[in-house]
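Annotators were shown the component list below and the corresponding predicted structure, then asked to write short factual statements about the assembly.
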Amino acid sequence: MSTTHDSTTMLDAAVLRADFPILDQRVYDDRRLVYLDNAASTQRPRQVIRAITDCHEKTYANVHRSIHWLSEQSTDGYELARERVRAFLGAQEINEIIFTAGTTASINTVARSWGDANVKAGDEIVLSVMDHHSNLVPWQQLAERTGAVLRHIPITDDGLLMIDELDRLLGERTKLVAVTSVSNVLGTINPIQEIAAKAHAAGALILVDAAQSVPHLPTDVQALDVDFLAFSAHKMLGPSGVGVLYGRRELLDAMPPLLGGGNMINEVMLDRFTPAELPAKFEAGTPPIVGAIAMTATIDYLENVGLAAIHVHEQRLARYAHEVLADISGLRILGPAPEQKAGIVTFMLEDIHAHDVAEMVNRECGVAVRAGHHCTMPLHERLGITASTRASFYLYNTMEDVDRLAEGLHITKKELSRRGRKRRS
Amino acid sequence: MVSEQDEIYQERILDHYEDPYHRGGCADPTHRHQEKNPLCGDVIQIELQLDDEGRIRDIYFDGEGCRISQAAASILAEYIDGKTVEEIKEFSPHDMLDLFGPKLSVLRQKCCLLSWKVLKSAVHSPINGEESM
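Structure shown to annotators:
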């Protein structure tokens, strides 16, 4: 990437790291904490922690309910956050932003509300082999309820979607393409704009699981021309328990409410109700108030650093990781070349189970990585493996972090490789 | 630093991992059970040959997974061989963690206890389909 050396897009990870109190601690016998589990969840900078604390200490009350000063403050903060998210995503209208409990809740909202109202037996939904369980299971449940048919875009051996196959999968019965924008295992950046165009040409809608892209790459829902897009705050320096469903206005308007309860109604009689307008229609009950309000500080922080700069930085880390891990014999990196992916490096170490790898690099070098199937059992099945180890980067990771990972892997190999040990009885 | 005791435990675990006790299948099994740990994909199968008195005449395990799950199965098989179904019933998860040795995090305890769970079910899983105990 030529932009790598463009000073306007460089970020100083060591400086940013100082904003994250949790990273300023030592683990296991005074080892520097190296956090490389960002695809699972990220850490929070002081600025976001302060926004959360301020909310609790100064402005907290329920939203959209009571006529008193605190409730007005809280409601203002909540709606300000909605507007901040709208601008961040490039959405046309504020009512297209629904606060949910997270990506999973967002996808399930579409699968249940839109799915039950629009999908009939024999209709087809196109997913991909690389999708997270949260973008597979809700559609499997919809298929169970409706008799819809699920089809899957295959991947190449190096982890790229076979886009040509999509043309074959799309047809008159296709109602929806639901696909991840960035694989949480392979790191592959999928061509969402192209997939959206193909889906629309076939008369289908497109939903994007953007949990791994919104925090790391610039997102513009109108430029991408997507119908639904889901992501979580906790993967972008915000709190857990809050996420967003973006949906095009006319689609959300036509969809029935999913959860029934307070806030989502216009009028309630003893035997019936009329639903509220957007976005309240999909926000039944007391929402994740503090978490949503903190999204303003989260987006402020990310935009201050710059999403493009974050992406460039993470690709540099991934490229460096590919280089140094190539020196470790028996190590195989899954997925495409660094240029084609986000800052996610998942690998297998010959003869050593992923959990043992994760435990050793953590204990020996303070490096936190994820091991297992990463909620992508079908992808692991496709790759012919049961578990892998994943390092995933964010804006506070440095080249030194990658060095610690490599050092940990060398130690792991030395300690755990088979060497003809004999059991003593 | 790791303690000397931990060091000894770690060596024992790696010894069992590389040179397991009775990995494979019984020549003449009467009972068999297999389970998977969905979190990490560890799989353990245990085969038993029980005699009429409910004593283990033979025990073999097989499976794949991390060194904790596989070494624990080997250590358990070695310990339990020759014992009775009654003794297996008495054998608690706490006993299993003690037998294994080093202190484990809650997540790794699941790896260690997988073979214990499989053993507990295996004594109630006769291969001929009849509950013999």
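Statements collected:
1. The mean pLDDT of chain A is 95.
2. The CA atoms of residues 352 and 416 of chain A lie 7 Å apart.
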